[in-house]
Write a structure and sequence with these properties.
There is one protein chain. By secondary structure, the chain is mostly helical. The protein contains eleven helices and three strands, in the order H-E-H-H-E-E-H-H-H-H-H-H-H-H. A three-stranded antiparallel β-sheet has the order 1-3-2. A hairpin with a 3-residue loop joins strand 2 and strand 3. It is globular, with a radius of gyration of 20 Å. The two termini are about 15 Å apart. InterPro entries: GntR_C, TF_FadR/GntR_C, Tscrpt_reg_HTH_GntR, WH-like_DNA-bd_sf, WH_DNA-bd_sf. Pfam families: FCD (PF07729), GntR (PF00392).
Length: about 240
């Protein structure tokens, strides 16, 4: 079990400590420090996090409820193996939400442009020399792009549901951004999508967006455990 620096023991309230352990473990999963199939015990987490077992157990059961972990009462915990069919279902829901968001954005009153779209345009039309390299930063920017499209509609429930889906597919999307060609394609595709939305070319924007997401969805079936181990090695090297 590979984790980053443990949480320091102090006078932190147990519920706050449980929240921090939960966030750390979720980050370990999305950043390949914990891979599907990895097993560990509550005691190992407590020791690494310098925490008692109570907040650790609270964090672990929360991750289990959200579908990240499985518990084996005689042999500890395991990072849940990939369920590719479930990932594809999540992608399908994501497409529905984002296409609906594009329709709402294109139907807004003339002259009204949400600030989120202007912010995104500055990021995704930046010249190549101003762009971050492939990896975590680009992955976070990509996730933020799609979340902000939905948030810009002003529908908080749509945005909440979309964020939850984005969290659940984060690990598979991260693999896309270990490949330079996918990074370059993402910048080009995002810029075209934004251009169509800002010009209120709704059908074009929806087609561009759906095609863009379908490419990412198709990559999910190509994921192997070997790819994940390679990603973990690169993550460890980057930290070193």
């Amino acid at each position: 079990m590979q984790l980053v620096d443990p949480i320091k023991r102090g006078k932190e309230r147990p519920e706050n400590l449980a929240e921090r352990i939960y966030g750390q473990l979720k980050d370990d999963i999305s950043e390949f420090r914990l891979l599907p199939g990895d097993r560990f015990s509550e005691g190992e987490v407590a020791e690494r996090m310098a925490a008692s077992r109570t907040p650790v157990r609270q964090a672990l059961y929360r991750l289990e409820r959200e579908g990240y972990l499985e518990v084996y009462f005689r042999s500890g915990w395991q990072v849940k193996p990939f369920d590719f069919h479930h990932f594809e279902e999540l992608y399908d829901v994501r497409i529905v939400l984002e296409l609906a968001a594009v329709r709402r954005l294109c139907d807004r009153p003339a002259g009204e442009t949400p600030g989120q779209l202007e912010e995104l345009r500055q990021i995704w039309t930046a010249p190549p020399e101003q762009r971050p390299p492939e990896g975590r930063e680009v992955s976070l920017l990509d996730e933020r792009f799609h979340c902000q499209l939905v948030e810009a509609t002003g529908n908080r429930e749509m945005a909440r549901l979309h964020r939850e889906i984005s969290e659940k597919i984060r690990i598979v999307r991260r693999l896309d951004f270990t490949k330079t060609p996918r990074v370059e394609a993402t910048y080009e595709e995002h810029a075209r999508i934004l251009g169509a939305i800002l010009s209120r070319r709704c059908e074009e924007a929806q087609l561009l967006l759906k095609t863009h997401i379908e490419v990412s969805k198709a990559e999910v079936r190509k994921i192997t455990l070997h790819m994940l181990h390679n990603a973990r090695e690169r993550a460890v090297q980057a930290q070193g």
